[in-house]
Amino acid sequence: MNIKSLLLGSAAALVAVSGARAADAVTVAEPEPAEYVKICDVYGAGYFYIPGTETCLRIGGYIRYDASGGDIGSFDGARTSDVVSGKDQGTWLKNTRFTLKTWTGQETELGTLKTYTEMRMNFGNHNTDSGIDGTGTYGVNAAGNKAFDIHFAWIQLGGLRVGLDESAFDTFVGYAGNVIQDTLVPYGGFQTNEIQYNFDAGNGISAVVSLEQGSGTYAGAIGTIDSYVPHVVGGLKWTQGWGSISGVVAYDSNYENVAGKVRLDVNVTNELSLFGMFGYGSNGKLHDVGLERSFYKPWGGHWAFWAGGTYKFSDKASFNLQVSGDQFKNYGLAANVAYTVVPGLTITPEVDFLHDGRFGDLDNSNWTGANKKNSWGGIIRFQRDF
């Protein structure tokens, strides 16, 4: 074999190998156009379409830091033992909370389909650790992670809502005021599984009917239903530009007692708004088991009141006040100034006072567990909403 023949054979082999490799080459598909998130402004700011669906989603929440001190009776501050001497003394009550919220909305042939969820995670003092033990001293009141709280998780189609919510006995007429400690005199049970229907009659008239499971205990009264018979709540409201008038009535199936609240809200000026709320409840079978309070009547005695208002000094600062009382001569006072440092960040210092009308009466003393007749406390809150 001469050199010429060798070179021609090598060239032919290289061409054959190159052709085989070319036949095995992978064809890369053209990239598909990216599907960008689209804004959904049907339900308000912050919503966007979940890619590939007609469902609009909004994600939000807040981070909150509370630091408080004073008497435990107004649930500002905590009691603990000195780690060296064991002496009972006051200490800071602190809590950091992260709350995650989601909202969804979608239009259907049966109306708007909505959901709402709210999850709360807390780290701070465990105030339940601060109780009198067998030696007559207080516990360590240790700080740590607290129980995970799924606070809301409901589905709503048109006017029908099912799932975990706060009782219509509270949400329909509105919470007591724009203060942090608005339950110095309590005005109702809160979390409950429910089947609820909201009706809008137009011209500012709305109504609600809610079948509820209840939850918790109230001075010994069991809030959760003990049979197939639900708690029942009904309400009616009239809303106009000047404010609103609302009323709500609840039937507790456990103790067969009835409680109700009426409320008046007035927008006096653009800067000043006032409210007043009055509650009344029967005892039903509460007296049969030696109890005074229930899920829908957690205040002392038959009647209770709450009143207050908000005055806006500017777009950044407002003053909030609430006074409350009940038949057992429990009286609460809360006042704060809420200041928005920058959009989304609010600092709120508050002062609270609680008078225990039946101090020393273990059966009927104020539900907050005040360890003195007159309690003072203060709290400062930092909250970043997003």
Helices and strands, in N-to-C order?
A: HEEEEEEEEEHEEEEEEEEEEEEE
Biggest sheet: strand arrangement: 2-5-6-8-9-10-11-14-15-16-17-18-19-20-21-22
Number of helices: 2
What is the average per-residue confidence, as pLDDT, rounded to a whole number?
A: 88
Helical proportion? under 10%
| Quaternary class | single chain
**Beta content:** over 45%
Structural class category: mainly beta
Overall, the morphology is: globular
| Unreliable stretches | 130-137
Termini gap: 84 Å
Rg estimate, integer Å: 30 Å
What's the story with the biggest beta sheet? 16 strands, antiparallel, barrel
Membrane topology: Multi-pass membrane protein
Signal peptide: 1-22
Protein name: Porin
Function: Forms passive diffusion pores that allow small molecular weight hydrophilic materials across the outer membrane.
